[in-house]
Amino acid sequence: MPQIDIPIKKLIQRRPADWAKFIQPDCRDEWVTNFKTDYTPTKESRLDSVLEITDPHKPYLLNLEPMGFRDNALPVRMLRYRSDIWEATVADGRGIPPIRQVVLFFYRKDDNGLYRLQDSWDYGLLEYVYAVIRVWEEPRQKVIDAKLLDYTRCCR
Fold first, then answer.
1. For the chain, first and last CA: distance in Å?
2. Contact 116/126 with Cβ under 8 angstroms?
3. Which domain holds residue 46?
C-alpha cells in the first residue's frame, strides 16, 4: 500500500470533523459522525472514509478518498463506492441519502485528470462526477489553520 494512504486515513479517523470542515467550511463538529465502511459486494469495496453529516438544512454523507498512487480506474471505483454506500443505506431502511465525494490527491504524479464518467443509452444519460482537491494547490496556511496535520503523532 502506498506510504501516504495509511497516515492520512488515520488522521481522518482521529479528526473527522476537521476534515469535513476543510471540505465543507460551514459544517459543524456536532454534525459529523463516522459511517460504516466495511461492506462485501461482489468486488471488494475499500471505502476509506465515509462521514455522516447531520446538517439541519440538508444532511448528507461525505466520502473522502485520499489518493497516494495513480489509478486510471478511479472514476469507476468512486462510482462503485457511491453504489455500495447506497446499497447499505437502502438495506438499513435509510433510503438514498445525498453523498458528497471528494478525492484528495497529494502528489501531482498521481492525479490522472479523470473525474467524470458519462454513459448514454435508450433510457437516459448517466453523468457522474466527484470533487477533487489537489493538496499542492491548497494554500499552506489553510491546512495549518484547519489543523489537519498532527505532526506530533504521525509525521515525525
1. 20
2. no
3. 5-145
Domain contains 37? yes
> Is 126 part of a structural domain of the chain?
yes
Instruction: Let me know if residue 34 belongs to a domain.
Output: yes
Asked if 122 and 116 touch (Cβ cutoff 8 Å), the reply is no
**119-128 per-residue burial string, b: 16 or more CB within 10 A, e: under 16:** eeeeeeeeee
C-alpha cell at 131: 470533487
- CA trace torsion 142, 146, 48, 36 (10° rounding): -140
- Write the pLDDT tens digit of every residue in 102-145: 999 989 999 989 899 999 987 899 999 999 999 888 877 777 77
Long-range Cβ contact pairs of 118-127 (< 8 A, separation 24 or more): none
Number of domains comprising the chain: 1
Q: What's the number of CA atoms in the CB half-sphere (13 Å) around residue 35?
A: 28
Q: Is the dihedral of CA 125, 71, 103, 31 positive or negative?
A: positive
In a domain, 152, yes or no: no
Asked whether the beta carbons of 62 and 24 are under 8 A apart, the reply is: yes
Is the pTM value of this prediction over 0.90?
A: no
